[in-house]
Write a structure and sequence with these properties.
This protein is mostly beta strands. It is built from no helices and eleven strands. The strands form two sheets. Strands 2, 4, 5, 6, 9, 10 and 11 form a seven-stranded mixed β-sheet that branches. The chain has a four-stranded antiparallel β-sheet with strand order 1-3-8-7, with no helix packed on it.
Length: about 120
Amino acid sequence: QVQLVESGGGLVQPGGSLRLSCATSGFTFSRYAMSWYRQAPGKERELVAAISTTPGGMSNYADSVKGRFTISRDNARYTMYLQMNSLKPEDTAVYYCSAKQLTTTGLVNYWGQGTQVTVSS
């Protein structure tokens, strides 16, 4: 049974920090590219950050979070992280983790249930 469980969300003041975790099970974590997405009320889900299959591999970020957020993964713990610093009110959203692998039969994509991040004074 595939599971992706996000944690670490909460209420934080502007300028504060949070560290999100995505704990996974039920699939071969090291073979999947991992990503964080977010969705604010009334807006479409958007990609926040992505990392390739290896911990030191390629990563990319949305322009809005570059220099503030850092994505990482620990293949030994089947877990991905998102360190969020200098948080702004516009970072308020539900944050989702995603696992993707392109196979010979098509794209396999798993999602977590999301964790709420609220940035407010």
